Amino acid sequence: MSERVSLGAAGQRLGVGAGDIRWAGYTKDTAGRLGAWEHRPPAWLCKARARKRRPTMRRAGVSCCLCGTMQEVRPSLVEDYTHLVCGPCSRSGKRPEVPSRPGMIVVRAVKVAGYFDGYVHRIATAQERASVHRAAALARAAFLDTPAKPES
User: Fold this and answer.
1) I need a labelling partner for 102 at 20 to 30 A (CA). Which of 5, 21, 37, 110 fits?
2) Where along the chain do its domains lie?
3) pTM of this prediction?
4) pLDDT tens digits for range 86-136
């Protein structure tokens, strides 16, 4: 009877992780089976080794434009956004300042990099500008139509 080998030790010896062996359906490992796998590696072992050799993805550190919280994310996720706001700042209702140029709006994209919401400043289309002006006019009219509260 062959002696037992832990999955962690077997994975280290084979160049894969213990989870790869467990994923292949083996909960216990023996020295005999380990020797056979080293001599003639099965397909799942070759695939697991190939996954280990893949280059890791490049990551970039990004920060919240309001509080400065840093996190590493894939650059491709955040390349189109001018401002990133972390989850806690976004939930508290904070958002980046809109440029003071007329016709500029802020477009929000939720959960662009897991933890961050993305904002893009861009020039509003004619239809968007009309709806913004209409909303502002309605807000002014509602403010003017409300009766003043008497002071106590």
Assistant:
1) 110
2) 4-53, 60-145
3) 0.45
4) 888 888 888 777 666 767 777 777 777 777 888 787 777 777 777 767 777
Q: Nearest-CA neighbor of 81 among 123, 125, 121, 128? A: 121
Find all residues with CB under 8 Å of 51, minimum gap 6, and list them. 20
Nearby residues of 111 by Cβ (< 8 Å), 6 or more positions away: 117
At 46, phi and psi to the nearest 5?
Answer: -65, -40
Element holding 21 (H helix, E strand): helix 18-23
- Block residue for tokens 């790869």: 20
CA 127/CA 143 separation, integer angstroms: 24
User: What residue ranges in 45-128 does DSSP mark as E strands?
Assistant: 60-63, 70-73, 83-86, 104-109, 116-123
Rounded distance between C-alpha atoms, residue 12 and residue 2, angstroms: 19
